[in-house]
Amino acid sequence: MTTTTTQPFGGSFLIHATSPDEVVTPEDLGDEDRMLMKAFEDFADREVGPHLEALAQGSGDLARSLFEKAAELGLFMAEVPEEYGGLDLSVLAVTGMCSIRAKLGSLGSLIFGHQGIGMLPLINFATEDQRERYLGPCMNGEMLSGFALTEPGTGSDAMNITTRAVLNDEGTHYVVNGGKQWITNAAWADIFILFAKVDGEHFTAFIMDADSDGLTVGANERLLGQHGSSVAALSLEDVHIPVENLLGEIGKGHLVAFCTLNMGRLKLATNSTSGARAAVEVAAQYAAERRQFGRPIGEFGLIQRKLADMATRAYAAEAVAYRTAGLVYDALEAAAGEGRPTLDTKLATLSEFSAECAMAKVHASEAYNELADEAVQVFGGYGFSEEYPPARMYRDSRIARIYEGTNEICRLYAQRAMLRRAWKGKLDFEGAIAALGEADNGDAAADGDFDAHGSTIANLKNVYFSLIRDVCSEVEQARMFDADNQQLMASLADVAIEIFAAESIFLRVAKGRPGRDADENEFYEAMVTIYLSRAADRTRQEANEILAALFKGDELRAHLDEVGGWLPLPVGLIDPRALVARAVLKGGGLPKLS
Questions:
Q1: Domains and CATH numbers, the chain
Q2: CB-based burial of residue 408 (10 Å sphere; 0-12 exposed, 13-18 middle, 19+ buried)?
């Protein structure tokens, strides 16, 4: 692996070593970005925080009132180009904005459902007339938008929707029949970005007014979490949508959907990191205050282990989310030059890094879910009570693994995308596999030397390519994506995700080293040591799954020995965990980004 200074491309992190100055981290946010984050955070603390319980009880009037206050703050102008009256914020600024979601409770579903998947199709695909009629009101809070794609029988198989649109004899309206399910903001929306198949064949997007005759919104679903949000089914019986409300082109609704969902996955990664960080905060503060056996529970080894692992997972998830946002941001800036990125540039860039967006979503949402669970455990019996924050965190976190494509689908998508790129010659997997015979395998980071962690990450990549080689030698390319081989694809994806995360946290810490004192560096470097140990363990586990499915007996043993030679020796984590836990307890959570 050689360090590259060329423009990164989709999946290139696997075949090139990246230098710290090539990645974007949360610490790279500029002063204006931080001021914006602070304004949104103040809004969440001042306007939303006191009403979280009322929102959870389903106060629609309160939710709508807070939605309008968010509009006054400019939250829904963020990604709208200046020529349409918006702020035209960069991907990085929007990523920082998403970091407030954990403070919004169920209002987060309303706000980010509208600001993201509800408005992005209008920003990217609407005509001038449509922008005037719908985008302006959505920006200023007069209209609330929903995204109506999922159907009862499709779920993850979004392209196989059955909602049908037929042009009437007069050529003035599309007559739409069908049903949608799990539609966020359904009861409150004024418009919906609706997907249907024209003549039952051509996947197409429309703007549908919520007061259209024939549209029925069902009762709000009784949800496990996100209490107080509106999620309901839609029934469409001969709904007439004017032809001027066609969004984009007939048969090209997939561009509207996938552009929106790829960006949605990137945003959801940051949304999830805000929840992960909040879980660390409440657990650390409780562990510092709660006393048992005459001392704070944070002084006990098992609680310290939890806090250190939680802090490390949250910090790594942030590194992954911002690195991915940086890839998209840098590519858009490079392509646009002095101007603004065109729609074609946006589509191409989000497609280029769609695997990274999917991986970031998986990594961050699972960190959020697991850290919320650990927060409950730190609180003990109190964590199981609705009177304390972890109960709501636990319930609310679970949906993140389903939103924007289930994590299972995202795993398969990411791995398939990288293989397809390799088969097309866009990723040099063959060269990486050929270089395995020259690779220097070993336990370079076992001595705890921070710089040697780079060798460990390179060896994890060697493991990945040895597994790619073995899978491709045993499974026909034409059958690689068959249902029977999904477990192999998912295990490969998990190894790639761990490599991406391990490298991201390593590079984040390395980039910040010159500006920190010795104690700060010791804290952050301890988190890298902890995370790389996790990454190595996960890689070993998934490698065992793959190899045991492909080989038996002495052949299996030989392949396991090869993988074992690249994986580092175990590192004692008791001291690094204690160091991280003490710092987190003292600071009441991870250090603030601002």
A1: 2-21+258-587 (1.20.140.10), 26-139 (1.10.540.10), 145-249 (2.40.110.10)
A2: middle
